[in-house]
Design a protein that fits this description.
5-stranded mixed beta sheet; 3 helices; alpha+beta
Length: about 90
């Protein structure tokens, strides 16, 4: 069985991290956001993982390592190099 996610690997100023697009509810729930990060660790090994959720108005909310979240929250999400990843179990 396989599924797909929308994500990006970013390398800014020598810091490499992954951003994964998730349901807005996941970013808002402390249990769900930690579970999601743990679920994506094998897809993006060795990288901090940042979750991005958008509410019904399109407002972005990030969750993850604070210094990276502070940095990317100032960037237009359209500039993130998004791609689809197909994950096979």
């Amino acid at each position: 069985m396989s599924y797909q996610i929308t994500g990006a690997i970013v390398n800014d100023e020598g810091v490499k991290y992954a951003i994964v697009l998730v349901n807005h509810d996941v970013v808002q729930n402390i249990n769900q956001n930690e579970e999601a990060i743990n679920a994506y660790l094998h897809i993006f090994p060795g990288m901090p993982i940042i979750l991005l959720g958008r509410d019904w108005q399109g407002k972005s909310t990030y969750y993850g390592q604070k210094d990276i979240v502070d940095y990317i929250s100032k960037i237009d999400p359209q500039r993130i190099p998004w791609r689809r990843y197909i994950i096979s179990d």
